[in-house]
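Much of the work behind modern protein science is quiet bookkeeping, done one molecule at a time. The protein below has been through that process, and both of its lines are reproduced in full.
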Amino acid sequence: MNFSQLRDQRANGFRRLRFEPALEAHYRKARDEGIRSRARPVSASALTLFLVYTLLDSLMLPPAIARDTIAVRLMVTCPVIIGVWWLSYRDIRNDHFVKIYALAYLIGGLSVVGIIGLARLENHPLPYEGILLMLMFGYFVMGIPFRTVSGASLLVIVAYLWVEHATGSGAHQLMINGFFIGTANIIGMVGSWLSEHRQRAHFLDRQMLNASKQQAEQENHRKTRLITVASHDLRQPLNVISLILENLTADGLPVEQQSLVLRLKSSVTHFNNLLASVLDISRIQEGMISPEPTRLCTWQVIRQVSETFSEQVQRPGAQLVIHKPATGSGVFADPQLLHRVLQNLVTNALEHSDATRIDLRAHQDNGKLCFEVQDDGRGIDDGSLEQIFTPFFRNSQRQRSCPGLGLGLAIVHELTGMMEGHCNVSSSPGQGACFRVFLPATPAPQTTESVSGAAVPPSAHSPSLVVVEDHDEARHWTCETLASWGYSVRGVASAEQAITRWGASSNAILVSDVHLPEMSGDALYDRLFARKSVRGGILMTADTTIPQGYDSERRLWVLHKPLIPMRLRAAITQLDRLAE
């Protein structure tokens, strides 16, 4: 049943101790499972109680009577109790076990009636407290369903009254005993009804909680799907725009138009940063980000951040200075999340500080690796320092001149915490700001690969490039951009065309989209690489949930869209050098 049906069931109530058919079947299944588990301690306590009564019979009753009562207890009641305990561990249906359990209660009650009758036949009055004990045991201890226990208890009471009448009890005495037994039964019935009503209410609460949880999980799944689709569908056209602008820059336009292109590239970069921030904070809030920390070379991390901003810092008045850390310095972090953290800090300094120089460095600090992004900008006032890492916080003095969402530093704080680190900032108005990120330090890995370093023009021996992209515009402009760099480029629209057109021992590098109709770009690369059709590969994807980075064993790069031209070119250069 869904949440609205469960809510209707609660509103309608269940005074007759009945749910709607579908829910009733589910409740009985859960109830019967609980009764089987409950039967084990109940059987143990009941067996102990009857053995104690057996001992008391031998001590307090005349031998002739004790012999009969003890026989009933040991030959009838105790075996029935032991049988219930044994069956609770056997592989029988729960609903069948509950019926056997209720029958055992009835037999136990009738055995007590029989013991009273045996004593009456010997003119030895036994009190009816045993019947009362059995009634209370059935109603409150055994957990038998209300209707079942009420019916069984009524049979026990009728049997008791018949035995009293048959053994010569007078009408007055029979009336008194019947009154007290009947009163006790009514109390037990009320208590049993309340107990089952409470159990049903708790069951209904659990079902509503589970339904709410499932509904929330479905909503989260839809949100996750929306975020993933939005990330892919928005980054794809951004990638095309970036490639078009790269080609416009390469065509040698007049100075005025070159300035316009630079402004367009700056706007695209700003839009991409806003999109990344919105998607990042959404993924964080939905729990979609799971860090995968590994040992990283600190110097490689810094250089990759520098490459990301290679074009932005070429603008007049902006300078990013990177400092080489101590040899062998390493950090234990998720490479993608750390890159995003440092990228946000540098972006913040470039766009919001009016800085002319930004320094990026790293050093050891009490077992931690401290990354510093320091600028010489306008600084941060004391009131803003306390809220600088709060989502959507923006300094009111800069809201108009520097549009944004106020998410960049909040993402830095969240991602750093996910990697078991912390961050802080120190600043004074007019004195710039210094943001610090502390993460676990570790020795640098022995072998590291990087796309760092200046990209060199292709030579006559450079490999040809095979572009596999099913999106026509993206394929066209990727090929145009690569061709403008001097490479021999061939583009195809499907994995099948790439497989059939290129044979073994081809001096080529694959540049492919990850998501292709016939097979994934990853599977395509493995197939081409296995038959030596390509010497290395670069997979492009707008899905940022796929880790970006280099696999040295497979000679394979994964780069996120929109592609950073300098990084794409450096990756091709690296793969070319490795194959020499």
Q: What stands out?
A: The longest strand covers residues 433-443. The chain has 16 helices and 13 strands. The chain has a mean pLDDT of 85.
